Amino acid sequence: MPVSSNNGASSFRRGGPAGRWLAAFAWYGVIFAASSRPDLRVSDDDALDFVLRKCAHMAVFAMLAILVVRAVARGANWTPASIAVGWLLTLALAISDEWHQTFVHGRVGHASDVLIDMAGATLGVTTGVLVHRRRARRTPPRSEPLQ
Question: What is the pTM of this model?
Fold first, then answer.
């Protein structure tokens, strides 16, 4: 069923462009909010806290990259160009997140965290590409309707 052009909300419900971008920026909002907290310790053990926070960096930026590429690609059509643009936009958001942390009392922005973020983004995009390829192999070809 076609989406009505006079109903803007339908693009949100059906995963249209506005909904895909909203999902990406909402997820970045979660990252921004977490970056605004002065102390994000998750463990009293320094080594465990460090590992868990770096894994969290990778995980949240993996998801962000998937959402951004999905928005850039307009859904399921992940081309090399849309993947590259989405990855670069995620890089810009990772840099802005670290820069934002330099203004938060008790936080410091680190270039190494951008590298960790982008390792997560690369992992997320790679996973997304593999999932898309697997789904494409499983989807049977559409047959023409009988007349």
Answer: 0.80
